[in-house]
Amino acid sequence: MRSRQLGQNFLRNKRTARRLVHSAGGEPDLLCVDLGAGTGSVTDSAVAIRTGPILAIEYDHRLVSQLAARYDSDPRVTVLAADLLEAPLPDEPFVIAANPPFNTSTKLVRRWMLSPSFVSGALIVETSFARRVSGFYGATKLSLSPCAVHRARDRRRRPTGRVHAGPERRDRDPDIRAAS
Question: What is the largest CA-CA distance in the chain?
């Protein structure tokens, strides 16, 4: 069911999903956004851990219908069928806990984490991308300074193929506008 064209990589490990939601930070009653909700593993963890509203954004209409049916009875969860690069940014303060498509990492970080309402977040991104934006290789083209890369040892959450991934945490930088 995974689509290479959409850059999908599904998180199957529940423990990793829970750790990702915990790592997102922020107050538990803040809006939690799951970018590229996929099969809902991060959304499931957010429902269990957080007390505020949850926005699950997914582009693949096959998965949107499954997510909508699954969370239909939970008033805290909103499932939005939208492109992550075009979905409206929340006006209220929000955190991100997500395993987004790897083929849009740079654009997602620029768009969502530079939002004035962004508080903090944790995303699973390709290791090479995480090293670039964390300054592991030196200066970053994104003018962001996320936290250092955390090595992921759990092979069950790696996407198929030769892509290595790991979670990365980011808090809002008060001087982010001056750096961009």
Answer: 47
Specify the pTM: 0.75
Q: 105: which 2 tokens?
A: 């990492």
Q: What angle do CA 74, 35, 114 make, to 5 degrees?
A: 125
Kindly tell me the burial class for residue 17, based on how many C-beta atoms sit within 10 Å of its own C-beta (0-12, 13-18, 19 or more): buried
Q: Which CATH number fits domain 14-179: 3.30.70.2190, 3.40.50.970, 3.40.50.150, 3.30.980.10?
A: 3.40.50.150
Strand order in the sheet with 118-126: 77-81, 54-58, 31-35, 94-98, 118-126, 165-171
CB distance 149 to 134 below 8 Å: yes
Is the CB of residue 37 less than 8 Å from the CB of residue 68? no
Chain position carrying tokens 């209220």 = 92
Give the position of tokens 């099969």: 39
How confident is the model over 4-62, as pLDDT tens digits?
555 556 677 788 889 889 988 899 999 999 998 989 999 999 999 999 999 999 999 98
Domains of the chain, residue spans: 14-179
Name 138's Cβ contacts closer than 8 Å, sequence gap at least 6.
Answer: none
Reading phi first (left if > 0) and then psi (alpha if -120 to 50, else beta), residue 154 is in beta
